[in-house]
Design goal:
Order of helices and strands of chain A: EEHEHEEHHE
Order of helices and strands of chain B: EHHEEEE
Strand order of the largest sheet of chain B: 1-5-4-3-2
Shape of chain A: globular
Number of domains of chain B: 1
Structural class of chain B: alpha+beta
Oligomer: heterodimer
Structural class of chain A: alpha+beta
Helix content of chain A: 10-25%
Number of helices of chain A: 4
Strand order of the largest sheet of chain A: 4-5-2-1-3-6
Distance between the termini of chain B: 17 Å
């Protein structure tokens, strides 16, 4: 994996990774990844006020780094990782999307390098125009469902 | 395209096999004739039963769990649709915001039913790929 620094510009050909729960994968369906994998959180203590989170793959030591902040072992094992190219995010037609740096404080012990957000997919925008954002979520899920974009598929979890 | 169906006047449809009055408003493409390995309502019901046990932070990322009343409501609705031999969704998922989504893909069209509260569902039809 070619390592980049967070200060390096975000290029169109870079891959961004997103954590996706096991229930949102279904290999015999189209798209394999549910659009709900890209839904901004509007409730609870972890709302996506600044947009949904992704990580720059080139800033990670390994793909599994993206899962590090899920502290519960079982929940972490039930989470996969998918990738989307920056250009794909920027070229979605249903709405104008961008990728913005959102690097975490370096003093944070469980910090993951290369954190970015899609600012347009934030909690307020989702509440204001859910239908528009749902189309963008579907487009992102379609890209993330390509066989070479599913980087970690978790095993089906026990009930 | 999104349509909100308010089914407060048809609540019995969730607990009985009688057709709700909103049945006519449901997409005709979901009126499924025949059965087969892909019409897997049982796995949908299994997933809903599992969903009923979820608690807040069920994903380790702070997501809220769906209310049990909502899960029960969707489960009853699912039994009714199964009995009517309609096309099973490809997937049912709990969203990060405590709602429940059923998804179908039919002829390049992605159809989503989002159950947002008991007796209330938002229906969306989207092109599978707009790019």
């Amino acid at each position: 994996m070619s390592k980049k620094r967070e200060s390096d510009p975000i290029c169109d050909d870079e891959l961004l990774v997103r954590r996706v729960r096991v229930e949102r994968f279904k290999s015999d369906r189209i798209p394999i990844v549910s659009p709900s994998a890209f839904e901004p959180r509007t409730k609870g203590d972890s709302q996506d006020v600044d947009g949904i989170s992704l990580y720059r793959l080139d800033c990670l030591e390994s793909v599994s780094d993206a899962l590090r902040t899920i502290s519960d072992d079982i929940k972490r094992q039930q989470t996969g990782v998918v990738a989307i190219q920056v250009l794909e995010v920027r070229s979605i037609r249903s709405m104008k999307l961008s990728v913005a740096e959102s690097y975490e404080d370096e003093s944070k012990p469980d910090r993951i390098a290369g954190h970015v957000v899609i600012p347009e997919l934030n909690s307020s925008a989702y509440s204001a125009d859910k239908t528009l954002i749902k189309q963008a979520m579907l487009d992102l899920a379609t890209y993330a469902s390509a066989s070479d974009r599913i980087l970690v598929t978790p095993p089906r979890q026990p009930p | 395209m999104a349509t909100t169906l308010d089914r407060r006047n048809t609540a019995t449809a969730f607990t009985t096999t009688s057709a709700p009055t909103t049945r006519a408003a449901l997409p005709s493409e979901l009126a499924f004739c025949g059965d087969g390995p892909r019409n897997d309502w049982d796995s949908i019901i299994d997933e809903l039963l599992r969903m009923r046990e979820l608690q807040d932070d069920w994903d380790g990322e702070g997501s809220v769990a769906p209310e049990k009343a909502l899960v029960d409501d969707v489960t009853s609705y699912t039994y009714w649709r199964k009995k009517a031999n309609e096309l099973a969704p490809a997937r049912v998922v709990a969203t990060v915001n405590g709602t429940i989504c059923m998804e179908w893909t039919i002829n390049g069209l992605f159809i989503e039913y989002e159950f947002v509260e008991p007796d209330r569902v938002e229906v969306r039809h989207m092109r599978l790929k707009s790019n």
